[in-house]
Fold:
Amino acid sequence: MSEALKKTLVTAGRILAAEGQRDYTRGHLSARHPLDPDFFFMKPQRIGLEEMTPETIITVNLEGEKVEGEAPRHSEAFIHSEILRARPDLNAVIHTHPPHAVAFTALGRELQPIGQPSTIFHRGLPVFADTIDLITDQARGRAVARCLGQHKALLLKNHGIVVAGVTVEEAVYHALLLEDACRLQLLADAAGGAKALFSDDEVSKLGERLLRSEAIKTTFAYLARRTGAGGGQSIGGKVGTGFPPMH
Structure:
């Protein structure tokens, strides 16, 4: 189970990198340990998202301390540890710096339901504006977790995004659609701003439709094929790609 989950993390890293969220070695993602909820697997420092292998993945506890693995942990491990501590319903966390999302955070505007990607955030998209600095201690990690609240995505002002999910696949889905939503709004704003939007009810219906498990599973499987990555299994087997193991 643990090895399958690590392979899913590897696939997720390759997908994020291929979709423009690599930012050199600075992005990171994690998944709660399938056998002990007080620990989680995490991409290590010093390598890119697309360079992960099951062997390089480290294990960290909810205090933010590395307990297993050769490579050093990211200084922002507290984003992961504090969200996973505060949200036992979630099992995966991603922090990246996608350019359109970062640019959008600097505008101080709310995300509008301009296109399909933005509809999944119809329940709200918090913005963490305490600092542009790294989240390098428990206090800041707890502040990010409080800002996230019961949502699954937030914007770090002038910094990046934090997204979470019940599965790794769901977290990746949120990360990609959030960047798409920010890009669409920047395009609309550059052309003079959106002139027509649908009702809250219509937006909510589409958002819920796009968040169905099957939509998440299908998207992740497609992106795994497109990047040449293999598959794995999500926590609890809730969502899996159905692809053979990576070599």
Remarks:
- Helices lie at 2-18, 77-86, 99-105, 116-119, 138-148, 168-190, 200-210, 213-227.
- The two ends are 17 Å apart (CA to CA).
